[in-house]
Each structure stands twice: as structure tokens, then as C-alpha cells.
Amino acid sequence: MKTEIVRARVSSELKHESEVILSELGMSMSDAIRIFLSQIKLRNEFPIELKMPNRETLKAMKEPVTKDEYSSASDLFSDVLGCSDVKN
């Protein structure tokens, strides 16, 4: 029987954007919270892996996005791997 209430303060933007996504999945915010808490109970741990990015990842995240275009996957791999003869 559902008798307890869980309350949390979040930004209106986070709430709205989450509700839109959950609605597309056919579930309510309450459904999502119930599933989240059920997974904590089932697994006996936090159900989402939380990681801090390392220095290299943080550096890459701060670099500007390039608009390079390639005519084929081979051209892309050649550029990324720094070689001219990449085979599929």
C-alpha cells in the first residue's frame, strides 16, 4: 500500500524536461521515482554508476567541436589513426 510521500526540490527546467521524456516513455514522475527506489532496494546499492571524468576526458570535453566531414568511414579512420592505408 502506498502511504508515504517523497518530496524533492528541483529546478522547473529539470522537472519539465524530465516529465516530457518520461511521458514519451509512458510513465509519470511518480512511476520513475518508484522504479528508482525499487532498484535501490533490489540491488541494495545505488542503481546508477557515478563516475568523475579524468583529466584527459575533461580536457577533451572542453575542446571545440570540429565540423570535419568525411566521404567514407575509411577516410575518417585514416585521419583519426594517422595512417593512409586503413582497410575495412
From TrEMBL:
GO biological process, any: single-species biofilm formation
Pfam families given in the database record: RelB
Keyword entries, A-Z: Toxin-antitoxin system
Single GO MF annotation: toxic substance binding
Transmembrane segments: none
Taxonomy, superkingdom: Bacteria
Similarity comment: family membership: Belongs to the RelB/DinJ antitoxin family.
Protein name: Type II toxin-antitoxin system antitoxin, RelB/DinJ family
Lineage start: Bacteria, Pseudomonadati, Pseudomonadota, Gammaproteobacteria, Vibrionales
